[in-house]
Each structure stands twice: as C-alpha cells, then as structure tokens.
From TrEMBL:
Keyword tRNA processing assigned: yes
Subunit structure: Homodimer.
EC number: 5.4.99.12
HAMAP family: TruA
GO process terms (BP): tRNA pseudouridine synthesis
Protein's UniProt name: tRNA pseudouridine synthase A
Domain Pseudouridine synthase I TruA alpha/beta: residue ranges: 9-104, 143-252
Species of the source: Candidatus Amunia macphersoniae
Annotated active site: 52 (nucleophile)
Length: 265
C-alpha cells in the first residue's frame, strides 16, 4: 500500500465544486479519472476542504491510498499529463498510512478577491467579485478585527453535518489593498482568513458582510451584534464563488520540503 499527499491547484470556474456528483464535472471526478488512467486503481480520496462550484484552489490537499507502490514525483508527473488544463498537481509526498487530509489539518487559509470598479473587467471576471464604487478599507478592517477569536458563526454559515456545531476559531483576518503595477487605477482588495475549520459558506459570508460594511450598507456595530447573538435575525449577502480562493492548508508536523511552499500560510 502507498499513502500519498497531493497538493492541487485548479481554476474552479468550470467545476461544480470538489465533491463528485452524478452528471456534473467536479475536481474530485477529474482527479479520480486521472488516477484510474495512470494507476488502474480507483482509490478513496480525502480532501482538506470541499470547495464550492466556481471557487478556486491554490493548495487543495488530497490524501490518496493506493494498493501498489508509487513514487510521489513520477506519479504527479503522470497525473499532470492526463489532467485537464484547469487542474494540476503542484506537489506530492509520502504520507503516513493514517493520513486524512481533512481531519489531520490544523488550519485552513482562504483569500477572497474584491474589485471596486464600475467598468467591467473581462480579465478578472472569473477570479474576483466586482462591486461598483469605492470601498472603505478602514471600516472593513475594523469589522474584520471582530471576527478574530472563537465565536459562534451561525450567522455566516452552516455546519457541514446536520445538527453540528457552528463554533469555530478564526486565527487571522486581514484586509489589504493591492494595485497592479500595470494598472494602478484598478486596485483589488484581498480578504484573507485563517481558521481551524470553516462552516459551509462561512468565508463567502465573511466577504459579503465586510463588503457591505465597506459600502456603508452595514455598520461595524451590526456585525458585532451578529457575533454576539447569531439568532438575531440579521442575514448576510453571501459573496459569489468566483472570488473565493482556497489558499493553503497546514498540518501538525513540518511538511516535506517538496510541499513546504504550497502548505505554508
């Protein structure tokens, strides 16, 4: 038996998310197809997170357990030769037999891209949420600071299990503005969040709430009230999936050198 840890990168625009679905193109589906083509096996896969339809990943970690012995790098090269153009294996390494990509992870980092611009942007339309007009970065940062720590985030997402808990610990939240050198008049705001785990829709809920604050449509105090009382009845506009980027996943042990850059936050 061989247990491997793969790190995937994919453009989620044309995928119906990570998880296999009947009659739908998914990342798990194309990876499984590639594994069957290369190894002749159809192994069980574990993933660090189930990305939404249209969301992207720069560091999705997948656990693969194969019946036969495979060296990590030759297998990664073979998989990349048959994977479609919108998905690739960025790294591969041997893992312990008990490795589980989701349950062994200690934190996940997501980034959400927001583009405050009135004119359409054909180049960024697949990877960022375009909102008309300017955003108040300072107000967004004040609101983001409230999200740090351990809270009941039921107002921003739902548990992946029916009846499951909605308390999560957010280790880091940041809002920063970057301006491409080629076009400094077209800035992009990057919302970055690291947490022990995420609820379904939680990151997109955060992005929607922070943008609402930045546009003056929701106050910082309202956001604080949603954290203090998730049953207050206030709801957030969930940001579209196209701006969501799964960025990195961390594990307790130091990752192998081949994966260090992909798995470090």
């Amino acid at each position: 038996m061989t247990t491997l840890r793969l790190v995937l990168e994919y453009d989620g625009t044309d995928f119906h998310g990570w998880q296999s679905q009947p009659s739908a193109r998914t990342v798990e589906g194309v990876l499984r197809s590639a594994l069957e083509q290369v190894t002749g096996e159809s192994p069980r896969l574990t993933a660090a997170g189930r990305t939404d339809a249209g969301a992207h990943s720069h560091g999705q970690v997948v656990g693969v357990r194969l019946e036969h012995q495979w060296e990590p790098q030759p297998l990664a090269t073979a998989l990349n030769a048959v994977l479609p153009a919108d998905a690739a294996v960025r790294g591969a390494a041997q893992a312990v037999d008990t490795f589980h990509a989701r349950f062994d992870a200690t934190s996940r980092t997501y980034r959400y891209l927001v583009m405050p611009r009135r004119e359409r942007s054909p180049l960024l339309r697949r990877y960022a949420w375009q909102v008309g007009g300017e955003l108040d970065d300072a107000a967004m940062r004040r609101a983001a600071a409230l999200l740090r720590g351990t809270h009941d985030f039921a107002a921003f997402g739902r548990s992946p299990r029916p009846g499951g808990g909605t308390v999560r610990t957010v280790q880091h939240v940041g809002v920063r503005r970057i301006a491409p050198l080629e076009d400094p008049a077209t800035p992009v705001l990057v919302i970055e969040v690291s947490a022990d785990a995420f609820l379904y829709g939680m990151m997109r809920g955060f992005a929607g709430a922070l943008v609402a604050v930045g546009r003056g449509r929701r106050s910082v105090d309202e956001l604080a009230g949603m954290l203090a009382d998730p049953s207050c009845g206030r709801t957030v506009t969930v940001a579209p999936a196209r701006g969501l980027h799964q960025w990195a996943v961390t594990y307790p042990a130091a990752p192998p050198a081949a994966l260090a850059s992909e798995t470090s936050a």
